[in-house]
Amino acid sequence: MRRMLVYLMLIGMIAMYASATESDLDGDGETDDVDLDIDGDGLNNTDDSCPLVFGTSSMLEFGCPDYDEDGIPDHLDWNRDGDAWDNDEDDCPMVSGTSKFVLKGCKDMDGDFMPDIYDDDADGDGIRNEMERAASTGLVMYDPYNFNSKPSDVDEDTIPDVLDDDADNDGISNTDEIEASRITGENYDWLDETLTPPDYDGDGSPNALDEDSDDDGWPDDVELDRGSDHLDENSNPHLMYFGVDTGIFYGGGLTFYEGYTDDALEISLSSLMDIVFEELVILLLLVPIYVGLFLSRRKIFNDLIADIESTEDLDKLGNIEESANELVRSKQLKVYHGLVLRNLIETRENYLESIHPNTDCEE
Fold first, then answer.
1. For residue 5, with 0-12 CB atoms within 10 Å meaning exposed, 13-18 middle and 19 or more buried, which class applies?
2. Judging by DSSP bridges, how do beta strands 61-62 and 58-59 pair with one another?
3. For the segment 310-323, what is each residue's pLDDT rounded down to a tens digit?
4. What is the pLDDT of residues 340-351, one digit of tens each?
């Protein structure tokens, strides 16, 4: 057992020696056991205050890490990162920075004195960090810490176009410009403030989508139906006649409204004229048509009666009956006209047969 322990100790010592002789810290091809400059910083091990750590310090101690390259090794330097703040005042003592607000001496890439980790717009490109991230897609990524990586912002309101409801800042939303283009067939580019759909009353809703384009309280469809100008706030159906207001809305009881109210009764010259011209006119136009049709039927009916009463020929009576039936089928005569004519024809046939009783026998 003791012999076994001795063997193990010998093997361990050999392994440690082999590892030491094979190590090459600075990678210069010389193993550390023979390398006169183990860390490769240009100083011999005997002169190097930090022989196992690469460094450039040249004051107080030599060859030790010197972040700000002022010659003083970091562990002895009262201002390690070389910025305007000593270590005891510097919130980021190992990183050179210019921030003054919230944290001192930390990175401030846009030079606004706010440390990047607390800066809403770290790269100072005018677009907030979260906006740049939100505008990113699977194909395009915007870096909030890179001034040259910036999403499009046509109106420069710090909101990327893809997130801005009114990207060109013309007062009309992107969706309304697109919808107005579809309705009118005009090209209203939502990224071009010079291509804006008309908005007479300036309420942000294009005329093509606005139910009351002139904002006079009267819906466009009512004004267009009555004939008043839906793009003139001084024009409405009640002001169309005699230059005065000719109407009012009755809401029941003693309630009256001067302005348009869709749930009240309108009492006005405009509504009366609308009824006359849009409803009664149609009926009045139909009167002469019906009168003409009535007179035409009456003439045909009377002519057939005259033919029946004047004929002395049974064959002709048969032809008259066929004609009467065809006129009824084509609606040139009413059904009751046909019945009257049929009765007259039978009466005339009986009469003619009574005065010529032997006509059929002779034939």
1. exposed
2. antiparallel
3. 888 888 888 888 88
4. 888 888 888 888
